[in-house]
Structures are given as C-alpha cells and as structure tokens.
Amino acid sequence: MGELREAVTDHDLERFARIRLAVSPRSTPSPPMREPDRLILLHDDDGCGLAARSSLADSVTVQVYVRPEAQGAGIGTAIAQRLLEHARGMGRPSLFATVDGAQPHGIAFAQGHGLVEVGREVESRRTIGEEPWPDPLPGIDVVTVAQRPELLEAAWYAIGQDGYEDIPAPSEIAMTLELWLEEEAAVPEGSFVALEDGRVVAYAGMLEEEHGLTTVARSHRGRGLATHLKRCQLAWAASSGVPELVSYTQGINDPMRAVNDKLGYAVEDPWLKMKGPVPPA
C-alpha cells in the first residue's frame, strides 16, 4: 500500500503542502511549520496528515488529506491511526479539525472518526483594486506595528485578551502573550493600531495576504473603528501590490461579517469546525 513515514526535510514539507492543496484547493499553499509535539506524516505522494496542539486549550488539531484517485484504499485510515496514537500522548481530551465545507468526502471521514460539527468559519475574499486611504476619524490616531512595534504588546493587554474571549469559538482559545507576539502582525506594515489619547482602542492584524485578529475595545464598539482599520489594510494592500485579501470569521460573529459585507468581501463555502473525543487505544 506504500510507505507511511514522518515528514522530516524541507522537501517533505513542500510535498505535504502540494498534496493538501491538491485535495483542498482552498487550503494554504504554505508548507507546515515544524513545532514541538507536532507530527507530520506523508504516505508516498498520495496522502498526508498532521497532529498538533490546537489553539483550543482542550484539543489536538488533526488533518488528513488523501488525493481523490487514491481514496478508498485505506490510506486515510492508516494516517489517522498514527495521528491518533500521537494525540493520545498529548494529554488533551478532544480532537479538533477544520474541514473544507466544499469537500463532502472530508466531512464524512471526520464524522466516521467521531467528530461532529460545532461551528462554522466563513471565508471571505476581497480582490484589491484602487483602494483610497480613509479619512481620519476625529480624535483617533492610526499607526502601523512597523512604525511602533511596542504597540503590539500594548494591544494585547488593552484589547487582545478581550478580543479572544469574545470570539464565539467551540471552547476556550489558548492564546498567550508569547503566542500573540509570535503569530500576530506577521506583516507589521499591514497591521494597524488605533489610539485615542495615546491609549490602544482598536487593532487589526495582518498575516501573509490574510487578515489576523480585528478587535475593538468593548467601550468603543459600534463607532466604525473596525471598518476604518480594515479600510487602512485595503489601502496598504493596494500600495503594496497584494492582489487579494482573505478573512476568516466565525459563522455566528455577525458584527465582523457585517463589516466584511460592507467592504465588499465575497463569501465562499464555509469551513466546518468539527470536534470529538480522543478515542481510547
């Protein structure tokens, strides 16, 4: 049936990305990162899988991809068994998977391993055209993290923790200051902070051609700050030659979906959030 082995080299990780993209064309084209406790598997050029600590505090994230022409030969089951063995040693009670809503085979595979839908993430895309910089808001100063790097940590303490608490996720999101500083504002020139009298009141992060967290101080919501910062990001994208931006929003996060709708983001098929217990050995 072929060889199931751990992905070790950069070439292996690139092969993983190619297989994943062949199975789910909407997935990220970037290879997975090596991280502690993360298991990355390859099955020849037919399938791949990954198990890692989820951003949900109680869960292990699992991914299984098998090329359509190789499905039905037991490759996915073999990958899943290895991933489950790894997950049992990670001390978390639940499995978590994000499944492409346009892939019924992937949904059925997850359901067959005890996962059920617990939420949906809406993918929205915005083609970048001529994007003017928005007019300033009265009393609000806007700067980028590139201009003032110290504001990224300040944003965490001022509004970042509240922002994550308010995300309608299926369980607590395991975000820390260390992860925030490492993962947020991956593109500091496209990550914007709004200040009122020197105090952080809104933040919009930018990853690689993808929006990060957008959050506003609870005291300042409903004033158009999120829309303003996203307009700044669109203008930055246009000036930087970025052709398209992608935003992922929890399906029941109506306020942020309304912001994206207002700004002309096109809604794609949802991503299903699926969760279930780690099965015993």
Architecture overview:
The chain is α+β, with helices and mostly antiparallel strands. It has two domains: 4-121 and 270-277, Aminopeptidase (3-Layer(aba) Sandwich); 129-242, 3-Layer(aba) Sandwich (Aminopeptidase). It contains seven helices and 13 strands. It has helices spanning 10-23, 75-88, 104-112, 150-165, 177-183, 225-240, 254-262, and strands at 4-6, 39-43, 47-53, 59-66, 94-100, 116-127, 141-144, 192-196, 199-206, 211-216, 244-250, 266-267, 271-277. The strands form two sheets. Strands 1, 2, 3, 4, 5, 6, 11, 12 and 13 form a nine-stranded mixed sheet that branches. Strands 7-8-9-10 form a four-stranded antiparallel sheet, sandwiched between helices. Helix 2 (75-88) links the parallel strand 4 and strand 5 (94-100). 36% of the residues are buried. The model has no long low-confidence stretch (mean pLDDT 92).
Helices and strands, with pairings:
Blueprint (H helix, E strand, L loop, with lengths): L3 E3 L3 H14 L15 E5 L3 E7 L5 E8 L8 H14 L5 E7 L3 H9 L3 E12 L13 E4 L5 H16 L11 H7 L8 E5 L2 E8 L4 E6 L8 H16 L3 E7 L3 H9 L3 E2 L3 E7 L4
Parallel strand pairs: 4-5
Antiparallel strand pairs: 1-2, 2-3, 3-4, 5-13, 6-11, 6-12, 6-13, 7-8, 8-9, 9-10
Structural class of the secondary elements? alpha+beta
The CATH homologous superfamily of the largest domain is termed Gcn5-related N-acetyltransferase (GNAT)
Return the CATH architecture of the largest domain: 3-Layer(aba) Sandwich
Number of helix segments?
7
CATH level 3 topology of the largest domain? Aminopeptidase
Q: On the 0-100 scale, what is the average pLDDT?
A: 92
Principal-axes shape call = elongated
Computed over alpha carbons, the radius of gyration is 20 Å
CATH class placement of the largest domain? Alpha Beta
Strand content: 25-35%
Query: Low-confidence parts lasting 5 or more residues at pLDDT below 50?
Result: none
SSE ordering = EHEEEHEHEEHHEEEHEHEE
Distance between the termini: 23 Å
How helical, in percent, are the residues? 25-40%
Major β-sheet profile: 9 strands, mixed
